[in-house]
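Risk register update: the risk that structure generation would not scale has been downgraded. Supporting records follow, first protein first.
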Amino acid sequence: MRKILALLGAGAAGLVSLPAAANNYAECMKLVDMAPKRAYELAAQWRDYSGGIPAEHCMALSLFAQGQYEKAAVMLEDLSRRARQQAKASVPQAAPEVKLDKDGKREMSAEPEVLPPGLAIDLLSQAGNSWLMAENNEKSFRVLSEALGMNGISDDQAAEILIDRARAQVEMGNLEGGLKDLDMSLQRGGPRSEAYSYRAAAHRALGHFESARADIDKALMLDAENVDALLERANLNQAIGNSDAAIVDWIQVIKLAPDTPSAKAAVDSVNKVRAHQAEDEREAARPSTPGARQAQVPKPAAPAAAPPPAPAPAP
């Protein structure tokens, strides 16, 4: 699972006074990683105290962290739509005066929160990623395409979105479309280990083993501990018949990312390959002598004797 980035800046923090675990966006995000159910509860309280889009964003990411990908996707799409509406309706004005209560905390204000530029694009990008995790690749492709067409999108945003849209296309069986998106991602965002790793997987699936190897080398040069790249190198080595090298990479994945789906896939692959190797060793150790082979093959039956000639007829 790709980690969803914390994309709201300092402008979304410290909006209201709540329990210490969720009194601002940064603290809420920390709680999402540690205790997503509790983060959701506190973010809901924050929303009720005029937390606005930042509070609901924390709620959506809490749902994502709990594996409720479809609910998170629906919520993130709605938040993106509302962020766009709010941006259109906002009028530039002087920053409001910050008032503190007796404890030195910022007082609640009826003023709408100031949303960071590009927030609507980020929210829609996260919605597309959530649909991808929910295995609804068609919706993921639609949402991510919409995000790519939005005004003001940066090269970094486009590069990340193109990687996710490539994944959706590959899942839908469009390997060539996925390759094109990954090419564009690298053009717009520069060298990225993740993009090279996914492009290697697409090349391998198309049988372009040399191109896959080149991309894997680039991915691991940028990030030697990229688990997806290590998995892909293992898959590539297995595809070309180098099982021993594949096992080395699978074991490295297990060490780097224990108790993850990647580690489970690596364990399953190692066990499967070692079982085949053990069977081959047993087969090679079985006795095989000429006499044994002859005993297993029945001899052809002798031809039937010709019947005796019929007696001549009496004169």
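Supporting record for the second protein:
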Amino acid sequence: MSRKVRELIRQMSRANPLWGAPRIHGELLKLGIEVSQATVSKYMVKPEHRPSQSWRTFLTNHASDIVSIDFFTVPTATFKVLYVFLVLDNARRKIIHFNVTTNPTAAWTGQQIAEAFPWETAPTYLICDNDAIYGYEFTHRLSAMGIEQIRTANHSPWQNPYVERVIGSIRRECLDHVIILNERHLRRVLRDYLDYYHRSRTHLGLEKDCPVPRVVASQRRAISR
């Protein structure tokens, strides 16, 4: 085989890391270069890493079609433990739905998803961890709504970063400064915080805008305040 053909095979494999030997072989045949597929495979440049998108790339590319969910706990003044469930829109970092309970179950969690996405507004993907709470009733509800469930690896909260960051913000900016009395009190506190979170709090991931886009005030008006 000539040196030019070998270099062409290497060039094509570098420029198209997703192409395998059959694809490159087919292109060579269309160029009038008669070689065997085995020869192409021999001279291809093998990629150092698997040519697939990273997890971060997946989250970025499909943000508009992804929601994330998670639970976090809140102790009360009477030493009870309340469970807060969040549904987050990854694209705008908007909390679509939340609820509070003392006894979360798979059926209850599935019902929250149905309430969050009525009238065929369900997203394509839903990211959650491997908690046992996401059992059969929950999985069945997602399937009925046409949502593809994507579970993160065990002990890998970094794979669900947006909702984890929101929970951290809720704790640092709100709940760490308040003593919660009961479920009703917690819902009221969270509603007030989420109103601030959506309409006033800027986010680095949104180019320093709010989940609900905030109008830019004039310079004179901003100074007068």
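The radius of gyration is 25 Å. On this basis the risk owner (M.S.) recommends closing the item.
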